[in-house]
Amino acid sequence: MTAVPNDLWRPSSGCDEECLPASGEVPTVPVVRRVLRLVAATGMLLTGVGLAVLLPVLPSRERQAAVRGWARGTARAFGVRLVIRGRSPRRRALLVANHVSWLDILAVLAVAPTRMVAKREIRSWPVLGLLAAAAGTVFVDRSRPRELPSTVRRLADALRAGRSAAVFPEGTTWCAGEGAADCRPGGGFRPAMFQAAIDAGAPVVPLRLGYRCEVTGSPTTAAAFLGADTLLRSVARVVAARDWWSR
Asked: What sign does the CA torsion over 128, 101, 244, 221 have?
């Protein structure tokens, strides 16, 4: 029997660096303001360390309020203003969203402090990984597809316990069709996590995430985290962009 490489199972994106904005395409802020944003974002990330320690002992309502406030403050520190259309679910639900950027996590938590489903690699990210673990994130090891059923069971158990959860069922990031002319708008949804909602009898609530430049009002891929792009490069692009908003 021929072994099938795990990489064939992993979701792959049709977006790459060609989908990112060209130099000079996105209005930028002066270097001083970029530094101030980095200082503010670092302060919020350090605050997240203390929050990660407190979250396990906080009552549910206070825990959700703390995560929501931290996520909104951190997004604003990076220069992103959140614009919310519609209402967050008032009862347990499986929230499903398209996936563009690492900022998506902040955007979702700022609206609905839910239990996230994320790739295992995020667990090792500075501060954000620590906070994600403290908030009860369900980490998925994409190199071990045989573990997927147990992940679905854990997610279903969380929904049965009355907790909402959020997942990016595309499994990887896309530019939302706002990058290169020949770029597809997004990837197909992987069905596995929807099974958790079926098993728990929980509703599925769709979310649509997008990023726009506040100066021009036009969509931008400046926040996108694609292909061989590194986290540091993506952060540098975000803090350099003129005020913009996520919806």
From this structure: positive
Establish if 144 belongs to a structural domain: yes
Helix (H), strand (E) at residue 211 = strand 211-213
Residue 241 in contact with residue 27, Cβ under 8 Å? Answer: yes
Phi-psi region of 156 (alpha: psi -120 to 50; beta: other; left: phi over 0): alpha
Tell me if 226 sits within 8 A of 67, measured CB to CB.
no
Q: Which domain holds residue 193?
A: 26-83+90-246
Residue 122 lies in a domain: yes
Supply the pTM of this predicted model: 0.83
Alpha helices of the chain — where are they, by DSSP H?
Answer: 31-54, 60-77, 103-111, 128-134, 148-160, 192-200, 231-240
- For residue 126, pLDDT over 60 is answered with yes
Evaluate if residue 5 carries a pLDDT over 60: no
Tokens at residue 119, please? Answer: 């790739």
Our count of domains for the chain comes to 1
Kindly tell me if the per-residue pLDDT of 91 is higher than 50. yes
Name the phi and psi angles at 99, rounded to 5. Answer: -125, 120
